[in-house]
Specification:
It is built from 8 helices and 12 strands. The N and C termini lie far apart (58 Å). Helix 1 crosses helix 2. It is elongated and about 65 Å long. By secondary structure, the chain is α/β, with parallel strands linked by helices. A hairpin with a 5-residue loop joins strand 9 and strand 10. The strands form 4 sheets. Strands 5, 6, 7, 8, 9 and 10 form a 6-stranded mixed beta sheet that branches. Strands 1-4 form a two-stranded antiparallel ribbon. Strands 2-3 form a two-stranded antiparallel sheet.
Length: 274
């Protein structure tokens, strides 16, 4: 209808008068987009242009009723995108941005090229989490829902990496130590129950697995693993077994038992990490 904006994923390619009144908004993406990741909204939104980051268009659509102080961290998303490209490799899509709704649905969703956020989920941790999903979850999708830690654990670990980047290694160490204590009380990240896929173990436990792997193999190999996973599985599906195979190849030794212990939630790997 007149005065409303139609929003979806990819790039806005046309805005035309609609037959009978109103406006038709046409969006297009050259990349595969699974159904649960399609952003879709119609309403009164302001478009905020944030320029190009490494050639990637960054733009937000914001409900004007959201209290402005809640939107302050959106100014840092281009900075976070530039940093994330340096860590994870080439951004896998043609655009990025935030769809900020004045409807609190309890969090955010990593909808492709335009993450969807309620007003209580516009702080940097959630903004970084959903941005990381563009690599881990959207471009590299799970082969089976039992491997969901490959989405949520990676995105949660990106939050911890952002803390290290933005506020220093000491705080990162404090966060990982605190989260390790939580991890020991949570379900195993590698085998969530079908009726409890998105439990805390998948998020915090999955990120703790990655921290443990970083400690075990060192930063050089670890960040090569992350970049290789994002590049080699791009626009396809990935499984835990494939991730373990990649780790073994990059590191040059068999870490299958090490990772199995962490993912299964039992065994000698349950020790405090440096």
């Amino acid at each position: 209808d007149e005065g409303l904006v139609g929003i979806s994923g990819g790039l806005l390619t046309a805005v035309d008068p609609a037959v009978g009144g109103g406006t038709t908004y046409t969006w297009s993406s050259e990349f595969t987009m699974t159904s649960y990741l399609v952003p879709l909204a119609v309403g009164d939104f302001d478009r905020v242009e944030r320029g190009l980051v490494e050639g990637i268009l960054v733009r937000d659509y914001i409900d004007p009723d959201i209290d402005p102080p809640l939107l302050e961290d959106l100014d840092r998303v281009p900075e976070a995108l530039e940093w994330m490209i340096s860590v994870f490799g080439t951004y896998p899509f043609e655009a990025y941005g935030t769809l900020a709704l004045d409807t609190d649905f309890g969090g955010a969703l990593e909808t492709q090229t335009m993450s969807t956020h309620g007003p209580s989920a516009l702080g940097m941790p959630v903004l970084v989490h959903e941005l990381a999903h563009q690599w881990f979850g959207n471009s590299v999708s799970v082969g089976d829902w039992s491997d969901i830690w490959l989405n949520e654990g990676f995105a949660t670990y990106a939050e911890w990496l952002w803390i290290e980047h933005d506020r220093g290694r000491a705080l990162y160490d404090a966060v990982t130590a605190s989260m390790f204590d939580a991890y020991r009380q949570l379900p195993a990240p590698g085998s969530p129950r079908p009726d409890d896929l998105f439990n805390g173990g998948v998020y915090v436990g999955g990120a703790s697995v990655l921290h443990a792997l970083r400690v075990e193999v060192g930063d050089g190999a670890f960040f090569e693993i992350l970049r290789s996973w994002a590049a080699e599985q791009a626009y396809a599906n990935g499984t835990t077994d494939e991730f373990v195979e990649l780790v073994n190849r990059v590191v040059g030794r068999d870490l299958s038992v090490f990772l199995d212990l962490w993912l299964a939630g039992d065994g000698p790997a349950y020790v405090p990490l440096p």
